[in-house]
Write a structure and sequence with these properties.
The protein is an alpha+beta fold and 116 residues long. Helices cover 41% and strands 19% of the residues. It is built from 3 helices and 3 strands; from the N terminus they run ααββαβ. It has a 3-stranded mixed beta sheet with strand order 1-2-3. The C terminus is likely disordered.
Amino acid sequence: MNRLAKLMLCIVMLGMLGCTTARSGRTQGQYMDDRAVTSRVKYKMAQSPTVSAFDIQVTTYEGVVQLSGFVEYDIQSRTAEEIATSVPEVREVRNSIQVRKESSVTSEPRANLRSP
């Protein structure tokens, strides 16, 4: 192989390596698409009076959005999921948000621990 052909082959191979990310094997385009989806979800959450975008982490992988973090009330978790689902590029939402406070509807009163 002549030197020019070898140089061209090296350039092509380096270019192909530059199109994938080291950790996930996704292309830069796929990575950027997922980042754009994450940004859209976070932006919509920031517009919501119910959800704090600072308390909820959003991660996207191949159009699947993972929500995590801690909120005070169940309605905040449900609203965050609805917001994520409303973004057109989202294929699926996995809601792992933890609610800190118990709902008064689901919590049972504690028994009186004093003896008679």
